[in-house]
Specification:
Elements: H1 21-32, H2 39-46, H3 55-64, E1 67-73, E2 87-91, E3 95-102, E4 106-111, E5 115-120, H4 121-127, E6 128-137, H5 145-170, H6 174-191, H7 193-208, H8 211-259, H9 263-267, H10 271-279, H11 281-287, H12 290-312, H13 314-361, H14 363-368, H15 372-424, H16 430-471, E7 492-499, E8 510-517, E9 522-527, H17 533-540, E10 548-553, E11 556-557, H18 563-569, E12 570-573, E13 582-583, H19 584-589, H20 597-606, H21 610-615, E14 623-624, H22 633-647, E15 651-655, H23 663-676, E16 681-685, H24 689-693, E17 697-702, E18 705-710, H25 712-718, H26 721-728
Parallel strand pairs: 9-16, 9-17, 12-15, 15-16
Antiparallel strand pairs: 1-6, 2-3, 2-6, 3-4, 4-5, 7-8, 7-10, 10-11, 13-14, 17-18
Helix pairs in contact: 1-2, 5-8, 6-8, 6-12, 7-8, 7-16, 10-13, 11-16, 12-13, 12-16, 13-15, 13-16, 15-16, 20-22
Length: 732
């Protein structure tokens, strides 16, 4: 069904993001053994973080597909000849490549970032640390039922993406596309009129001095040219409208899908990945121009033109066919080279963008530590590498263009010379000769535009591949139990909850956690850094769904509750409050977009921020800078609390939410919080003793496990870990 046929040459799979070298290496080896189109599920299964994956995790995934995986630390180059190939090797400290051929003094590697390369023995010692992962196929390779299910699910998802994002988007424009194709067809047919009119003038009008026929032909040419101008205008107008509507519809679907992806997808990718992917739509825009469509139609009509040449003279037409074949061969040879170079440019652009964003977002630290020169030269070095890849691509394109131009010129000269020779011998008339070279010239012009089109399509194919990487990702589940339209006064129960951010990690962030939080209880959570406090709250608001055990909300498994329904009942104030560009009022209204101005003011008063806002010149219409950069940490936090009061949820999660507040503000807001949300569930990660004393129960986490729980006084009397925290004043 899936065609597991072993290949002779080693396949190359390029990584799509900076951290996907591991999954790309697995994809290459799987493809070598006959399993294609597997990179997307491998990305999900390797589930890389922003720092990448590990060889250990890659070995687990490979074994699941039917490989016997072994790791080695090879001290000598010669030992590479003793292990099964292909194998995955650790490369340049933070990268993976596939070694697929070993010779006496060099090796061949497939680098998912830069393509196939040859490394000498010296280069191997410089770039590789000797750590390799060998994958030996077992008899049950790719035969496991789970593997077959993964493949079928991938195929189903691919079909769904094509239907929803492409076919359904294009379907409303079928009439426009048909009209554009018809006008292109008519324009091509009108283009054939000129050589035939030229032939008639030379063979009939001039020879017989037929003035009436001359005027008739001239009148016909005027009519043809007028019709061509009108049709071209209509075609361009239709294409302009189609381009705008298609781009709006397609990228609306794309962005809607993008913001509904799981949070784990955003954890696994860097900011520059997302920026570059959205920038890719500019290349798609260029595909929907009249010149591109005309080039496509020109190519189709070139076949008809070529047939017309055979009607004049077979020998001359065969010579023309040879020239055209050579022209197409050069284009096809250079296409994969240009595509690989485009991929390399994409990855280098990601690195350049990453350096720029790191400096921009950390500009305060750059200034405070006088890092301007260091950051500048680091960025400049990377940008130079990016431009070198661009230059390599330009050089390759210029080489191809020079070859095509040479073929075009020498081809025309050959046709002119041989055609004239045939005309001298009387095999064709002068009119036929002129018509022949005119049609041949039209074919070569079409091929020129087709080569440019082919290069653009090559770029666009890379673009669509990048977009498809996002579209094939599964979003948060929307096909959930319809009867759970709302979550009211939820009781929360955890049974043997275990969670890892990356599947296969040896240590869990939360381990075998079981507890019950009845509705209305106020619970404090304490623990050292990295003990899993914030992770627990994120799981309870369904930021992550890939956990072991169960989380029950009013007796319903959390996975079966729509995230939107759940998050309307639960409001979480994280450590890092984010604010969108806009006014203070707009940012508070995100808590409840339907709230009145009076409700916004009341929420601000409860959050102890109304007085500050009133002193501003524009009050609630004061513009907030990017992420609230023109506000203090305490002011941003208070606006976050105003959102909370406006949303008025049943459950409140506070993740160190008072860390930026002074003692007076904290006391005011916490008093308002207790009064306003009396009888509702509050979970708070707190550092301050005054906050913890007022909790009904305190959970003490350590290394992902629940060590102690009870009231403040009970835990002090117990003299355990919580007592040690309080006694030594550890800032946990």
């Amino acid at each position: 069904m899936f065609g597991f046929t072993k290949r002779r040459s080693f396949p190359l799979v390029l990584q799509r993001d900076l951290t996907e070298c591991g999954s790309a290496c697995l994809s290459m080896i799987f493809k070598y053994h006959g399993l294609k189109n597997i990179q997307q599920p491998l990305r999900e299964m390797t589930a890389v973080g922003a720092s990448g994956t590990t060889l250990y995790h890659l070995s687990e995934v490979a074994e699941r597909f039917g490989f016997e995986a072994d790791g080695y630390h090879l001290q000598h180059f010669e030992l590479l000849r003793e292990i099964p190939l292909p194998c995955i090797a650790h490369y340049e400290g933070n990268h993976f490549v596939v070694i697929y051929r070993v010779k006496e003094d060099h090796i061949r590697i497939a680098d998912p970032a830069f393509g196939k390369q040859t490394l000498t023995k010296k280069e191997y010692y410089e770039k590789c640390n000797g750590v390799v992962l060998t994958l030996k196929p077992r008899p049950d390779l790719f035969q496991d039922a789970d593997v077959q299910e993964i493949l079928q699910r991938t195929q189903k998802r691919s079909r769904s993406v094509f239907r929803h994002f492409y076919w359904d988007t294009l379907k409303p424009f079928r009439g426009v596309i048909l009209a554009v194709l018809i006008t292109s067809f008519v324009l091509q047919m009108l283009g054939l009129v000129l050589p035939f009119f030229t032939q008639t003038i030379l063979d009939q009008v001039l020879v017989h001095q037929n003035r009436k026929l001359l005027f008739a032909i001239l009148a016909g040419l005027v009519a043809v040219f007028t019709l061509r101008v009108g049709l071209s205008y209509i075609q361009n107008l239709l294409l302009a409208q189609f381009k705008v509507q298609f781009e709006l519809n397609f990228f609306s679907k794309f962005f809607y899908h993008f913001i509904r992806l799981k949070i784990s997808y955003f954890d696994a990718h860097k900011r520059e990945d997302f920026i570059n992917r959205f920038h890719e739509n500019l290349k798609i825009r260029g595909l929907f121009s009249a010149s591109v469509l005309q080039s496509f139609v020109d190519f189709l009509f070139s076949i008809n033109f070529l047939i017309a040449l055979y009607l004049y003279n077979t020998t001359l037409a065969m010579l023309a066919s040879l020239i055209i074949a050579l022209y197409l061969a050069v284009t096809l040879v250079y296409t994969p080279i240009l595509r690989r170079l485009e991929d390399k440019i994409f990855h280098e652009n990601l690195k350049s963008m990453g350096g720029f964003l790191d400096t921009l977002l950390g500009i305060q630290t750059v200034k405070l530590m006088s890092l301007e020169r260091i950051k500048f030269w680091k960025w400049r070095s990377q940008y130079r590498r990016t431009l070198n890849k661009v230059l390599a691509s330009e050089r390759t394109y210029l080489k191809m263009n020079a070859m095509l131009t040479s073929l075009n010129l020498f081809g025309r000269l050959t046709i002119y010379w041989y055609g004239a020779y045939l005309a001298f011998d009387g095999h064709i008339t002068i009119g036929q000769y002129v018509a022949f070279i005119t049609i041949f010239g039209m074919i070569m012009i079409s091929l020129d535009s087709v080569s440019s089109l082919w290069f653009m399509v090559t770029e666009a194919s890379v673009t669509f591949t990048k977009l498809n990487d996002v579209l094939l990702e599964e979003g948060e589940r929307a096909d959930l139990l319809v009867q759970h339209k709302q979550v009211v006064k939820p009781d929360i129960e955890l049974h043997n909850l275990t969670f890892r951010y990356m599947p296969g990690e040896p240590e869990a962030v939360l381990s075998d956690l079981s507890l019950r939080i009845p509705y209305g209880e106020r619970v404090g959570i304490v623990g050292r850094n990295g003990s899993g406090k914030s992770t627990l709250l994120k799981l309870l608001v369904k930021m992550y769904s890939e956990y072991e055990g169960s989380i029950m909300v009013n007796g319903v498994e959390l996975r079966d509750i729509h995230p939107g329904v759940l998050r309307r009942a639960i409001c979480m104030i994280p450590q890092d409050q984010y604010f969108f560009s806009g006014t203070i009022k707009e940012n508070i209204l995100y808590g409840n977009p339907d709230a009145s101005m009076e409700e916004v003011i009341e929420a601000a008063k409860l959050a102890d921020i109304h007085e500050f806002i009133s002193q501003l010149y524009l009050g609630y219409n004061h513009m907030i800078g990017e992420s609230g950069s023109n506000l203090s940490g305490g002011q941003r936090l208070k606006i976050g609390f105003a959102r909370l009061f406006l949303q008025n949820p049943d459950v409140i999660f506070l993740d160190e939410a008072s860390s930026f507040l002074d003692v007076t503000s904290e006391a005011t807001i916490m008093a308002n919080l207790t009064k306003h949300f009396r009888g509702r569930t509050i979970l708070t990660i707190a550092h301050r003793l005054n906050t913890l004393k007022n909790m009904d129960r305190i959970l003490v986490l350590d290394k992902g496990q629940l060590i102690e729980q009870g009231s403040h006084h009970a835990l002090i009397d117990h003299r355990g870990l919580y007592y040690d925290f309080i006694k030594t004043y550890v800032d946990f």
